[in-house]
Amino acid sequence: MRGEDSLGPSPRQRKRPSHLAIARILTPHGVKGEVKAKILTDFPDRFSLLKTVYLGEELSPATLEGHRPTGSKIILKLEGCEDRDQAGMLRGKLIYVPVEEAMPLDEDEYYVHEVVGLQVWTTEGELLGHVDEILFTGSNDVYVVKDGDKEVLIPAVSDVVKEVDTKAGRMEVRLVEGLR
pTM of the prediction? Predict the structure, then answer.
């Protein structure tokens, strides 16, 4: 078993996000200042609950005056955005909400920012490393666990992931043959 010090500073010590991206503005829509955005949240109905959103890296507050879904996209009307030119200036900006306004998840579901950085231990007590990133494969997520130049891919399935404790910053996994 290796001690925590062998991993260097924990990614959990990185600053936690203050806001979560829920959409990315793609293009102006029409001539009255509306924008078409790609939905990045698993909860598209959340737009009905929002009054204020935050735009871009600078997190500029904007009042959401209206919205309507259009397939996998959404049309948004933001206060102060009155014409196509103003809407065009928003192209590419992410739309954020405060992390405190994240939609509640079921018991065994987690937001990416809650999992990235967790220490990963085996059920035998071996520290494998930290979750560095999550791959979204379609069938199940895969946790990329790194320890220096070593990397282990852990499928996010109940046969392998036995416990996730975000408050303790820890995940416990049962390694099955072929995972190393």
Answer: 0.72
